[in-house]
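chain and backbone:
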Amino acid sequence: MNEAPLLAVEDLWVRFRTRARTVEAVRGIGFTVGRERLGIVGESGSGKSMTGRAILRLIRPPGEMTAKRLDLAGTDLLGLSERGMRAVRGERIAMIMQDPKYALNPVMRIGRQLIETLRVHAGVSRGEAKRQALAMLEAVQIRDPERVMRGYAHEVSGGMGQRVMIAMMLMAGPELLIADEPTSALDVTVQLDVLKIMDRLVRERGMGLVFISHDLRLVATFCDRVLVMYAGRIVEELRADRLDEAKHPYTQGLLHCLPKIGGGKAPLPTLRREAAWAR
């Protein structure tokens, strides 16, 4: 018997109304997420980040989000009030934004931000929150958590800032983690370290992960399943380890545009687009 999905999305739309026209950033998509690593890939502007924000109902005016179904393990997210959604955000679904280091408050010590996160969502004492914050920093392989707790965001490196944000998002033990290009600002070696940490924590905690990226090679090696988005729609879904067997011409075009070692000096192919793909 198949396990019920952790997250179920059906007919999700995100629109931005302007005086001139209505821009549809996400156009009637549907998918499920289990306790797995689901990758969402596509070009900039394809609707990847808007999808992640819509799941958390973070689309603000003039944007609007609608869906037939947005279900988190039996909880109808569409039916919750804004107060109810605040209880879901962070506690049941956490999101790591792009360039997470700059999502930290620059005028608050890192330790205070971690402690407040846990006290708001778990209601524990300050002493217990500090103990758990130190343990989480150690879990994301920060060698001197006491020093980092005393510091500010500008005093840590990019890689350490990413680890702090991962720790903060996992503090309350969410069921689902949405990571929006969390490694795009890092060099390759730090990327690998951060991915290993996320992979280990997701597996140990039995969480679901939605990994949003434009890096097809990264998604192919890190995720279990991939959704390919174009112009706000999902054009293909396939197993990550079979990404090179993609059938849709858009996915094939993305793969062909990747540079190859020893591939010669010929210009990289350009991506062909057809209006029919966006219908």
About this structure: The first helix runs from residue 48 to 55.
